[in-house]
Design goal:
It is a single chain. The protein has 297 residues and is α/β, with parallel strands linked by helices. The protein contains 13 helices and 9 strands. The chain has a 7-stranded mixed β-sheet, sandwiched between helices. A two-stranded antiparallel ribbon has the order 1-2. Helix 2 packs across helix 3, helix 2 runs parallel beside helix 5 and helix 3 packs antiparallel against helix 5. The protein is elongated. The N and C termini lie far apart (68 Å). It binds S-adenosylmethionine. The site of S-adenosylmethionine has 22 residues, from helix 8, strand 4 and helix 11.
Length: 297
């Protein structure tokens, strides 16, 4: 067998989907499961050739142009560096919407869709004012506005680069959102009038340095560390956001958080200390406690 570096630099043998698939497997076989590689080919074929996944297996002899072939070749070269497919394509799906993504924003995760779904079901038909703290790609704020059309939605991030992406995503999805460039760890006393919000939501950075080893290299090397990591206290962002939300929310208003592995044990009591009650923790589809809701009486 040829060494991997030689295989990786080989050209795609012919301009058919079958040859592309073979090439993807030979270049990426040592990094990903066969089923994941098949999925990469399916997604790239949908993206670059407009071939739906349902007909791909019968289109394996389909011939593509040189420029189309080049796109597959570029994609496989980026994938072999460990770059996630969403960054390679520059887009991700979220709650039935398309989001532009780049290295300044976290790739939206399925568990975050579950958090959005919780809020959408709770707040349906209501005239709510919402704030998304640490908006990144804007996925939460945009999905809320799209599904709660009567809501007024604001979204905040400390990263100007992330906000640029979030603004582009709001335009792409044709929703009106007020974006704010602020640091949530600073005093945010005058950000919104006290008692003016119905919903505060956040998926803040929650990975501690102790948990870094458990993070896959694809994530560590390609996703923005400002979106992932918290220094020292794993509840740092949760405490600041809860303190802010306790003032900014109306009576009856609710705070929703996504959380990591270390927060479920301690977050409920922190929220109680900030005056929240009716605290509910929910598991994600894989059975992990990943979401929490707390309201003001
Ligand atoms: C885990 S990501 C969540 C992104 C997006 N909401 C999502 O769920 O995919 C956390 C976000 O918080 C932002 N962030 C980090 N520190 C912040 C701070 N001090 N103030 C405001 N935003 C911050 C990061 O830029 C990042 O976009």
């Amino acid at each position: 067998m040829l060494p991997l570096c030689i295989l990786a630099s080989m050209k795609i043998a012919s301009n058919t989907i079958a040859a592309v698939k073979e090439h993807f497997h030979s270049v990426l076989g040592h990094m990903y499961d066969a089923s994941e590689i098949d999925q990469f080919v399916v997604i790239c074929a949908g993206e670059y050739l407009g071939v739906p996944s349902t007909v791909l297996s019968s289109a394996s002899a389909l011939k593509m142009s040189e420029s189309e072939l080049l796109k597959f070749s570029k994609a496989v070269n980026e994938l072999k560096t460990g770059k996630p497919l969403q960054y390679v394509l520059g887009k991700a799906d979220f709650y039935g919407l398309k989001m532009k993504v780049n290295s300044y924003v976290l790739i939206p995760r399925p568990e975050t869709e579950e958090l959005v779904d919780w809020i959408v079901k709770d707040q349906k038909e209501k005239d709510v004012r919402c704030l998304d703290v640490g908006t990144g790609s804007g996925c939460i704020a945009i999905a809320l506005k799209k599904n709660l059309p009567r809501a007024r939605v604001m979204a905040l991030d400390v990263s100007e680069d992330a906000l640029t992406v979030a603004q582009q995503n709001a335009m792409l999805n044709k929703v009106d959102i007020t974006f704010i460039n602020e640091d949530i760890l600073d005093a945010l006393g005058d950000l919104v009038p006290p008692g003016s919000l119905d919903v505060v939501v956040s998926n803040p950075p929650y990975v501690t340095s102790a948990e870094k080893d458990a993070i896959s290299p694809n994530v560590l090397e390609h996703e923005p560390s400002i979106a992932l990591f918290v220094e020292g206290n794993p509840l740092l962002f949760y405490g600041h956001i809860a303190g802010f939300a306790a003032k900014a929310l109306k009576k009856g208003g609710c705070l929703y958080f996504e959380m990591g592995q270390t927060q479920p044990a301690t977050l409920p009591s922190l929220l109680e200390k900030h005056g929240f009650s009716d605290i509910e923790v929910r598991k994600d589809l894989s059975g992990k406690e990943r979401m929490i809701k707390a309201c003001l009486k």
